[in-house]
Write a structure and sequence with these properties.
alpha/beta; 57% helix; 366 residues; two-stranded parallel sheet; 6 strands
C-alpha cells in the first residue's frame, strides 16, 4: 500500500494517522520532495477513475491570487520568462505596444513542464485578474474624458480617486465567479459526465444552443471528425502512395537478390563443393534479404528525421506547436518488423533457387 503524502494537507495528515493506527504496512511517498512521474500519475488517475483536474489542490495560492500566472514551457522559452518575472497583457500580437495594458502587472509563479500539448502555449491566471485589468482600463478612459474640468474639480477628482484606490487596497476577498453578475465570460469548457455522454440531451444540446441563442457551441469530437472528413481524400492518397512504395521496395529487394544470384551461381556451387549444405545456402540468401531490409529501414528513418529537423522551424511558426526530430515513436519500431517481413518474402524465391543449385551443371557451364 502507498500513500502520497503532503504534510501541508490536513486530509493527508488524517489519512496518514489512520494508516499508522491500523498497523498495516504501507509506503509513504512525499510527492512534494519526490515528484510523481507522468506514468505514475496516469496509473493513479486510471485507478481512481477520475479526471486529472480532480487531483489538483485548488485551494493553493497559485489558484486564488490575482495577477499571478502559471505559464507553459513554450511561453517561458519564447518570452524568456522565469519564475518571479513580471509581464503585462496586450490585445493580439501587435509589437508596437499600442494595445497593451500598462497596469495589472502579472507575476510568473509557476512554469509547466514540457508536454508537447496545448498547455505549453498557455498563460493561466484567475478570471478576476482579467476582469480587473479591463475594469482599470475603463476607469482610466473615463478619467481622461473628464480631464477638461477646472483645477478645483480636478483636485477633488484626484482626491476621490486616491481615496478609491485606498479602498481597493483594503477590499474584501474576491467573490466566487458565479456571484460576479456584472462581469462577462467569453468562453467556457463543459465536460459531460460519463453516464450522460451518449444521452439524447447531450447529442442535441449543441444544436439547441446554436439555433436558439446567440452563443456558439462546438464539440471537439464533432469538429475533429469534420476536419478528418475534409482531409480524407488527401489521407487516402498518401496511404495508397505508401502502399505502392512498400510494394516497389519489396520488388527492388527481390530483383536485387535475383540478379545477384544469377551472377553468383559459380560461387554458390563452390560453396557446395567445400561442404556447404543446401539449407545453409537457403538461409544465407534469406539473411542477405533481411540485411538489405534493415539497411533500408535505417536509411529511411535517418532521412525522415533529418527532413523533420529541416522543416521543424517552419511548421512551428505555422501551427504554433513544437516539432522535434529527436523523438522516436513506437510505431517507427513497428516499421522494422514490416521491413523484415518484406525482406523475407522478397528473398524466399532467390533462396529457394540457391537451395536447388545443381553443382555439376553450374561448374560445367562456368
Amino acid at each position: 500500500m502507498k500513500i502520497y503524502h503532503n504534510p501541508r494537507c490536513s486530509k493527508s495528515r488524517e489519512g496518514l494517522a489512520i494508516l499508522e493506527a491500523s498497523k498495516v504496512n504501507f509506503e509513504t511517498i512525499h510527492y512534494i520532495e519526490t515528484p510523481i512521474s507522468k506514468e505514475e500519475l496516469i496509473h493513479i488517475i486510471q485507478l481512481l477513475n477520475i479526471s486529472p483536474i480532480d487531483l489538483v489542490r485548488k485551494n493553493e495560492k497559485i489558484w486564488k491570487e490575482n495577477f499571478e500566472a502559471n505559464i507553459g514551457a513554450d511561453v517561458a522559452k519564447i518570452a524568456n520568462l522565469k519564475i518571479g518575472d513580471t509581464f503585462y497583457s496586450t490585445h493580439g500580437f501587435l509589437s508596437d505596444g499600442m494595445n497593451g495594458h500598462e497596469h495589472g502587472q502579472f507575476k510568473v509563479v509557476g512554469i509547466f513542464q514540457k508536454s508537447n500539448s496545448v498547455i505549453d502555449q498557455l498563460i493561466l491566471t484567475t478570471t478576476q485578474s482579467i476582469w480587473e485589468v479591463h475594469d482599470n482600463h475603463d476607469h482610466e478612459e473615463k478619467a481622461l474624458t473628464e480631464n477638461a474640468t477646472d483645477s478645483h474639480e480636478v483636485h477633488d477628482h484626484d482626491h476621490a480617486h486616491d481615496h478609491d484606490h485606498e479602498g481597493h487596497d483594503h477590499a474584501p476577498p474576491q467573490k466566487p465567479i458565479i456571484e460576479e453578475v456584472d462581469q462577462e465570460i467569453t468562453s467556457i469548457l463543459i465536460k459531460f459526465k460519463e453516464s450522460s455522454k451518449k444521452s439524447f440531451q447531450a447529442l442535441t444540446m449543441l444544436r439547441g444552443i446554436n439555433e436558439n441563442t446567440e452563443v456558439m457551441a462546438a464539440s471537439p469530437a464533432i469538429e475533429l471528425n469534420r476536419l478528418y472528413d475534409n482531409m480524407s481524400l488527401g489521407e487516402s492518397f498518401l496511404r495508397n502512395l505508401a502502399m505502392v512504395i512498400v510494394f516497389v521496395s519489396g520488388l527492388s529487394i527481390f530483383i536485387s537478390l535475383f540478379s545477384s544470384l544469377q551472377d553468383r551461381k559459380y560461387e554458390l556451387a563452390l560453396m557446395r563443393v567445400m561442404g556447404a549444405t543446401p539449407t545453409k545456402l537457403f538461409f544465407l540468401i534469406i539473411f542477405e534479404g533481411l540485411l538489405l531490409s534493415v539497411i533500408g529501414y535505417i536509411i529511411g528513418i535517418i532521412l525522415s528525421h533529418l527532413g523533420m529537423s529541416v522543416f521543424a522551424g517552419q511548421m512551428e511558426d505555422k501551427y504554433h506547436y513544437s516539432f522535434t526530430a529527436a523523438k522516436f515513436l513506437k510505431e517507427e519500431f513497428y516499421l522494422l518488423g514490416g521491413a523484415l517481413f518484406i525482406g523475407f518474402v522478397a528473398a524466399v524465391i532467390p533462396a529457394y533457387q540457391a537451395f536447388r543449385t545443381d553443382i555439376s551443371q553450374t561448374l560445367s557451364e562456368s
